[in-house]
Design goal:
Elements: E1 18-23, E2 26-31, H1 35-43, H2 46-53, E3 61-62, E4 71-75, H3 89-108, E5 111-113, E6 121-124, E7 127-130, E8 136-138, H4 149-166, H5 182-185, H6 191-194, H7 199-213, H8 228-249, H9 261-264, H10 270-287, E9 291-295, H11 301-308, E10 312-317, H12 320-330, E11 337-341, H13 361-365, E12 369-374, H14 378-384, H15 389-399, E13 400-408, H16 414-420, H17 432-440, E14 443-450, E15 456-462
EC number: 2.1.-.-
Protein name: Class I SAM-dependent methyltransferase
Keywords: Methyltransferase, Transferase
Length: about 475
C-alpha cells in the first residue's frame, strides 16, 4: 500500500488579498498591500479581541518584521481539518449561524464579511471557528446591500434547501465549490415549494428574473442610501432573514439504519454491553491516548469514553443521521469530539486545482492518531465492501501510530450472517485465524476478551 501522505496541499491562491500556507507549527497567512493595513486595523479593535476570546474567530499573530515586503500572520492550527462534504446538517447550520452572527457583529462596528462560504469555517471539536480573517473588510456606511449575500445563498442556503426538499446529498459540495445557482434548483422543486419561503425569494424570483435579463449587457451598481443608520438596519435585517431561512430549511433529525443503533442492538446482552464498555475503557486507560480516531463511531458511545479519557477524538461514520445526532448531543458538553460523515471504504479524496487544494481524509490522518477504535466495523469492510483482510490490517497500521482497539465478529454471529447472504463458500476464508495472522503482521496483542455472544475484543499495539 502506498503511504497515506499525498503531496502537500497548495497554499491558497484564490483570494487576491493574500494566501495561506499550513505548516506544522501553524497556518501562515501572507497579506498583500493595501489589505495589510486594513486587517491590522481590525485586529487591533476590541471587537477582534472579543471574537477571538469567544472562540468564534481564529487568533492571529504578526510574525513578519516591520520592514518586510509583505505582512505575515500566524494562526494556531485547528487540530483536524474537515470539509463541508464531511459535515452533518446540524454542522452546516452551525457554520452558517457562525458566519451570519459574526457578520452581524461586524456590521454593528463598521465592518463586514466580503465573502461567505462554508470553506471559511473549521471545527475545533464540535465548535465552529471562522478562520478566514481576510474575509473581514471595512463597510461602506451608506451601502445597505451585503455583497456576499449571493455567495451565502449559493453555498449555504441552496445546498441545504436541495438536501431537505429534494434529497440532494450535502456531500456533493465536494465537486460544487461555488454551490448551486437558483436556476439549477428551480426545475426540481414542486410548484408549492417554489412559492414557499425561502425558495420564493432565493430560487423562484431570481430564476424568473434571470430569464428576463438574458441577453442584456452591463452590470448593475449597488445602490447606496443617504442615511447610514438606515443602510445598517437594512443590512442587519438581510442577515437576520438569512439566518431564519437557514434554520427553517435545516431538517430535524431523521431515523436511519444506524441513528439509534446503540439503543436497539439486540445482538448484545446487557452483560456484553457492559463488558465491552469496560474493556474499551480499560484499554484507553492503558493507552492514555492523545488523539483518537473512532471508525464507525455511530452516535458516539466509545468516542465519549475516549474524550473522557482526555483524548481529542475524530468520530467517523457512514450514517449522516447518526453523525448529526452525535454532533447535536455534544453542544455544551465541552468534549473535544469532531463527528464527520466519512466512509473508510470510500474516504474523501483530495480535490481542487492539481488535486491539492483540499487534502484527502487519509492524508489528514497520516501520523495524527496514536489510537484507533474500530468496533463492529471489520465484518462490514470484509463482506459489504469486499476489502481483503490483509489490506484492512495494513490500513489500520497506517492510521494509528500506537494502539488499535478492534472487534472480531465470528461467522456464526447474526450480523455476520446477515451480510453473508448465503455466500458461505465465497467467504469461508474469513476466519479468526486469518484475522490473527493478518493483524499479527503489524500488531501484537496486549489484551483480548471473548464476550458471551462470541465476539472478541482486542487491544493491539503496533509493532
Amino acid at each position: 500500500m502506498a503511504e497515506l501522505l499525498s503531496p502537500p496541499s497548495l497554499p491558497t491562491f484564490r483570494d487576491p488579498a493574500g494566501s495561506i500556507e499550513v505548516r506544522p507549527d501553524g497556518a501562515y497567512r501572507s497579506v498583500r498591500a493595501p489589505f495589510d493595513a486594513e486587517i491590522l486595523t481590525f485586529l487591533a479593535t476590541p471587537l477582534a479581541t472579543d471574537l477571538v476570546a469567544q472562540g468564534r474567530l481564529v487568533a492571529s499573530e504578526v510574525v513578519s518584521s516591520p520592514d518586510a515586503e509583505m505582512l505575515v500572520l500566524r494562526h494556531p492550527r485547528i487540530s483536524f481539518q474537515s470539509y463541508p462534504w464531511e459535515w452533518s446538517p446540524r454542522m452546516w447550520l452551525a457554520a452558517a449561524e457562525l458566519t451570519l452572527t459574526l457578520c452581524s457583529d461586524l456590521v454593528e462596528q463598521g465592518w463586514q464579511l466580503k465573502d461567505a462560504t462554508p470553506l471559511n469555517v473549521l471545527f475545533q471539536g464540535a465548535r465552529p471557528v471562522f478562520v478566514d480573517v481576510l474575509s473581514i473588510e471595512r463597510r461602506e456606511p451608506h451601502q445597505p446591500i451585503w455583497l456576499a449575500y449571493g455567495q451565502f445563498v449559493r453555498t449555504f442556503l441552496l445546498p441545504m434547501l436541495a438536501y431537505s426538499r429534494l434529497g440532494w446529498p450535502l456531500r456533493t459540495s465536494l465537486t460544487r465549490r461555488d454551490g448551486y445557482e437558483p436556476e439549477e434548483v428551480y426545475p426540481a422543486l414542486s410548484l408549492a415549494s417554489r412559492l414557499r419561503r425561502p425558495a420564493l425569494s432565493t430560487v423562484t424570483l431570481p430564476s424568473l428574473l434571470a430569464k428576463t435579463k438574458k441577453g442584456r449587457t452591463g452590470k448593475g451598481t449597488p445602490q447606496s442610501v443617504r442615511d447610514p443608520d438606515l443602510a445598517k438596519q437594512i443590512l442587519l435585517k438581510t442577515i437576520r432573514t438569512l439566518l431564519e431561512d437557514m434554520r427553517h430549511v435545516t431538517p430535524s433529525h431523521r431515523l436511519s439504519t444506524w441513528s439509534h443503533y446503540a439503543e436497539t442492538a439486540s445482538h448484545y446482552s446487557e452483560e456484553d454491553h457492559a463488558g465491552k464498555r469496560r474493556f474499551v475503557s480499560d484499554a484507553l486507560g492503558s493507552a492514555r491516548p492523545a488523539k483518537v480516531l473512532d471508525v464507525g463511531g455511530n452516535t458516539g458511545v466509545y468516542s465519549n469514553l475516549a474524550a473522557d479519557a482526555g483524548a481529542e477524538v475524530v468520530s467517523i461514520d457512514t450514517d449522516l443521521q447518526a453523525i448529526d445526532r452525535l454532533y447535536s448531543g455534544l453542544k455544551g458538553t465541552g468534549k473535544n469530539i469532531l463527528p464527520l460523515c466519512v466512509d473508510l471504504a470510500h474516504p474523501s479524496p483530495a480535490t481542487g486545482w492539481e488535486n491539492r487544494e483540499s487534502v484527502s481524509f487519509l492524508s489528514r490522518c497520516a501520523g495524527h492518531f496514536d489510537t484507533v477504535i474500530m468496533l463492529a466495523v471489520l465484518h462490514h469492510l470484509l463482506l459489504h465492501n469486499q476489502i481483503p483482510m490483509d489490506r484492512i490490517a495494513e490500513l489500520c497500521s497506517e492510521l494509528t501510530t500506537q494502539h488499535l482497539i478492534v472487534e472480531w465478529v465470528p461467522a456464526t454471529d447474526p450480523k455476520f450472517r446477515e451480510l453473508l447472504r448465503g455466500r458461505d463458500v465465497l467467504y469461508r476464508h474469513i476466519t479468526e485465524t486469518a484475522f490473527r495472522e493478518a493483524f499479527g503482521r503489524h500488531f501484537t496483542v496486549s489484551e483480548e476478551l471473548t464476550l458471551a455472544n462470541r465476539r472478541i475484543l482486542f487491544h493491539l499495539q503496533k509493532r
